[in-house]
Specification:
The complex is a heterodimer of chains A (120) and B (157). By secondary structure, chain A is an alpha+beta fold. Chain A has helices at 2-25, 76-93, 115-119, and strands spanning 29-31, 40-42, 47-49, 51-55, 61-70, 100-111. Chain A has one domain. Chain A is built from three helices and six strands. In chain A, strands 1, 4, 5 and 6 form a four-stranded mixed β-sheet that branches. In chain A, strands 2-3 form a two-stranded antiparallel ribbon. In chain A, strand 4 and strand 5 (61-70) form a beta hairpin. In chain A, helix 1 packs across helix 2 (76-93). The longest helix of chain A has 24 residues, at 2-25. The radius of gyration of chain A is 16 Å and the shape is globular. Chain B is α+β, with helices and mostly antiparallel strands and 157 residues long. Chain B has a domain at 40-142: Alpha-Beta Plaits, CATH 3.30.70.1350. Chain B is built from three helices and seven strands. Chain B has helices at residues 40-52, 63-74, 108-127; strands spanning 9-14, 18-23, 36-39, 57-60, 85-89, 93-103, 130-142. In chain B, helix 1 (40-52) runs antiparallel to helix 3 (108-127). In chain B, 38% of the residues are buried. The chains are: A alpha+beta (120), B alpha+beta (157). Chain A binds chain B through residues 62-64, 69, 71-78, 80-81, 84, 102-110, 112, 115-116, and chain B through 1, 18, 21, 23, 27-29, 32-39, 41-42, 45-46, 49, 73, 80-81, 122, 125-128.
Chain lengths: 120, 157
């Protein structure tokens, strides 16, 4: 019954889009969907990679950011805090501050220059 | 994701081979904002990259690891930056085992000590884990010219 779910779904997707923008704006991390491509959120016509959103029992939406960080990264707890703050700010500007629940940040890999590619 | 721990700086190992690090009471990571998860592979890669920053380290990995690594890298499965690196990650601590090839002419004790310090600095600084030990095995020496193909001039005219 899509008509019943549409307000919540639109909020979830909008928050996922904001999260995607926050990741894209960062010059130190990238999103990863994982090998099985299971860390994604379905937007209307595409998949938002590296972002998972979940409704909570209190009506908010928790957001998971699945990331790879560039080498050398800043301390990862600080990196996560910056991303949380940026997402909170974006949500506030979009009028979704009260919908945004917790933001979980998972660092899955470090992205470093490939020495073999450099040698080539 | 699970609830955050309740001590000022606490980590929780998860079943998926990752470590969740939560700092409560400080602005960056309070529990009501979410949890930060660092996978073990991140710790492994940080340790490997840190070791390779040290002058005198030619590459990582033992003979077998390098041979297998060369094959797996060719088919896009391996990563030279993590071969020869093994980490054990606990709730708050990590132990690192490294196998390295040192350039000939370098002081092995000095290189090993520099590697140890650099790995501790990077892993602790980046992940927040406390490094309890860094065990280093020097597996081989690299001589300049080892990579060049042998000069195969004909032995007879």
């Amino acid at each position: 019954m899509p008509e019943r779910a549409s307000p919540a779904v639109s909020g979830r997707v909008l928050l996922a889009r904001l999260a995607e923008q926050v990741i894209a704006a960062s010059d130190t991390v990238g999103a990863t969907a994982g090998r099985g491509r299971h860390w994604v959120t379905a937007d209307t016509e595409r998949l938002i990679e590296g972002v998972v959103v979940a409704d909570t029992s209190n009506g908010q939406v928790d957001v998971e950011l699945h990331l790879v960080a560039d080498w050398p990264p800043e301390p990862l707890d600080q990196l996560a805090a910056h991303l949380r703050r940026d997402l909170r700010r974006s949500a506030s500007l979009a009028g979704l501050d009260d919908r945004l629940g917790e933001t979980h940040v998972a660092i899955h890999d470090i992205r470093a220059p490939d020495p073999d590619a450099e040698a080539r | 994701m699970a609830d955050a721990p309740s001590t000022p700086k606490e980590s929780a190992a998860t079943a998926s081979g990752s470590t969740a690090v939560t700092h409560r009471g400080s602005e960056p990571l309070s529990s009501d904002k979410g949890q930060t998860t660092i996978t073990d592979s991140v710790v492994t890669k940080v340790a490997g990259l840190a070791a390779q920053e040290v002058p005198g380290v030619y590459e990582l990995g033992g003979g077998a690891a390098r041979a297998i690594g060369n094959v797996t890298q060719r088919v896009g499965l391996g990563d030279s930056r993590t071969q020869g690196v093994s980490v054990e990650v606990g709730q708050r601590e990590a132990a690192v085992d490294l196998t390295v090839v040192v350039e000939y002419g370098e002081s092995i004790p000095q290189v090993a000590e520099a590697v140890r310090n650099q790995v501790i600095k990077r892993v602790e600084g980046i992940t927040g884990l406390s490094v309890t030990e860094v065990n280093i095995t020097v597996n081989d020496l690299y001589f300049p010219g080892d990579d060049e193909p042998p000069d195969e001039a004909p032995r007879v005219a």
